[in-house]
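Quick illustration, no need to memorize.
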Amino acid sequence: MGSWSLRADGTFDYWSPETFVIFGFDPSEGIPTLPKWLTVLHPDDRDLLAKTLERIFREGVRVDVTYRVDHPKQGKRIMHSTGEPVVEDGRVTRLIGNTLDITEQKNAAQELQRSEFYLREGERLAHMGSWSLRPDGTFDYWSPETFVLFGFDPSEGIPTLPKWLTVLHPDDRDLLAKTLERIFREGVRVDVTYRVDHPKQGKRIMHSTGEPVVEDGKVTRLIGNTLDITEQENATRELKK
C-alpha cells in the first residue's frame, strides 16, 4: 500500500516508496505531476479520477474509488484509493490518502464468481443440489438447485427439517429422520434413495449422499448433495419389463 499527498493546485508533494512501485514510476525522477500520473491510468478511467479530485477540493468530500492502471512493467492492475481532505480556514488545502493494489483480490473474486456459476450450472444440468445440515436439525445452506429439486421457493428461505420432510413420500419420512439421527449419533456416511412428492413435478425419486464433519470427536455438520434419479430409475424399470 502506498501513501501520498496532493495539494489544491494539483501538485503531489509526497509519495511513499511503495506508491512509486504501485504506479511504475522511477523515484530518481521525482514525484510525477498530476497530468503525468493520469497517463498510467486506463484511458476510460482518467476522466473519472480527474473529476473526482476536482469534486474533493471543491466540496471537501472523502475519496473512495477503484480504477484501472496500465503499469509499465506489470501490465493491467486494479487500484483502490481512499483519501481525506484537509480543511484549513474553511477550504480544502490538501488531500492525504493511500492506494492499495487489489488486482489479486479482484481476480480471486471474479474466479470465485465463475466457479460458483459453473457449480450452479453443473448442478442445474445434472439435477443435483448441495446442502448443509447442523446437529440441531437446521439446514444452514441450500444451493439454488436444491430448492428446485424439492419444490421450495428460495424467496421464503431454507425450509426447516420438519417442513422438508413433508415433501417426502409418507412411507419414507421415518426412514430419513432416523437415518439423520444415526449420522449425528454415530458419524456414519449417508447414502440413501427415497421418494418425493414434488408440488409441481409429482412423484420423483432422489438419491442423497452426505459426509459428517467431525470436530473434537463429535459431528458438527452434515454436508451432502441430492440427485434426482427419477429418469434413471424409470429407465431401469422399463428395461426389466
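Residues 2-101 form a domain with the Beta-Lactamase fold (CATH 3.30.450.20).
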